[in-house]
Amino acid sequence: MVDDGMVVTPWEVSGDIDYEKLIKEFGTQPLTDVLIRRIEKESGEGHFMLRRKVFFSHRELDVLLKEHDEGKPWALYTGRGPSGNTHLGHMLPWIFTKYLQDAFKVHLYFQITDDEKFLCKPELSLEKTNKLAYENALDLIALGFNPKLTHIIVDTDYAKPLYKIALQVAKKVTTSSAKAIFGFTDETNIGMMFWPAMQAAPCFLPSVLEGRPVRTLIPAAIDQDPYWRIVRDVAPKLGYPKTAAIHNIFLPALEGPGKMSTTAGEHSTIFTTDTPKEVEQKIMKYAFSGGRGSVSEHREKGGVPEVDVSYQWLKIMFEPDDRRLKAIYDDYRSGKMLTGELKHILIDKVNAFLKKHQAEKERAKKNLDKFILKD
Ligand code: TYM
């Protein structure tokens, strides 16, 4: 969708994002407190990303949860496009997916799209995207997913089962609707025209593998939703359950206001491979501040947490404790806390997260094989 300077497509997100408008334009549902409580009941404890509406919208999550109560099977599905190193924004839906898997004890299918990134990035070879696929897979495994329930699909190495489903999908999608939904033009290569059918395929894979209807639930940022529209349109025509989705907002780029992404610039993005020094330098130098022009003005008027990227990162991903977050908000808002102090709180949090993550990623190397879905 491109509107009022806001762009949200699977390949580009920029501008000030109005999430309520996206719910209307995309035709999704806001995530209600009733649904949040229903998920929390299952897990025994809540998740701050639900409480704070980091996950803010859904498609037929209510239907999926009702079916869950009736004992019907379902599976999680999410993914990654390996165009470079994984950044912290990518990890956000995966962290929440892990919470859902632990709560509901369901299978997760995780698609890594080396084919997509080869097709849409002129500078990348297939060898490179395939290598990145296995490197990025370690970031998922490092989060502690259960190997018995988690199946990583590297597209070009699992092509046969996917291709058969993708063909069924592709036959039901016209060029004109692909153009309307994805903004494809006559310059788009024909590989990309077919691509949405490949991203749709894992939605139906659990049903194919288990030989019975298995609905999928996709936790992902709202940029991926155009795919699910196609999927939900073709599902009944192919005899599969319609996929459900739960959408997260974007972790903003350090310089704000759009999503963090590799195209937002290396300095505006923190990768899982960054060193503590790089994290510190990037946040100190680039994180957009809601502070005032001078210390005295800041003390007098207070900062603006709502626009401060460091505060937003703590709220969205790095400070799960509500009381501590509120104390930070109050101190920054009142002027007691300065921007430098706020940035240091974030730097410590991100570095603690990455220290553990990088150690787990090293350990994940020997377990990689347990997760890769083989044909
Ligand atoms: P990719 O690699 O662009 O993104 C991976 C996941 O990260 C989400 N995301 C973000 N979430 C929060 N803040 C951000 N700044 C941010 N940037 C990206 C994306 O929504 C996505 O969930 N084509 C896909 C790969 C894919 C996929 C899927 C993703 C294949 N099947 C199913 C989600 C669900 C891609 O290139 O994602």
How many individual helices?
17
Indicate the overall shape: globular
User: Structural class per helix/strand content?
Assistant: alpha/beta
Please, what is the average pLDDT?
95
Radius of gyration: 21 Å
**Which kinds of small molecule does this entry bind, naming each only once?**
tryptophanyl-5'AMP
Q: DSSP strand (E) fraction?
A: 5-15%
- SSE arrangement, N to C: EEEHEHHEHEHEHHEHHHEHEHHHHHH
Percent range of helical residues? 40-55%
Q: What's the N-to-C terminus distance?
A: 36 Å
The main sheet comes to: 7 strands, mixed
Number of strands: 10
Low-pLDDT sequence parts? none
The spatial strand order of the largest sheet comes to 4-5-10-9-6-7-8
Describe this protein's structure.
It is built from 17 helices and ten strands. The chain is α/β, with parallel strands linked by helices and 375 residues long. The strands form two sheets. The chain has a seven-stranded mixed beta sheet, with helices on both faces. The protein has a three-stranded antiparallel beta sheet with strand order 1-2-3, with no helix packed on it. The radius of gyration is 21 Å and the shape is globular. The structure holds tryptophanyl-5'AMP. Residues 10, 77-81, 89-90, 92-93, 111, 113, 116, 199, 218, 220-221, 223-224, 248, 250-251, 259-261 line the site of tryptophanyl-5'AMP.
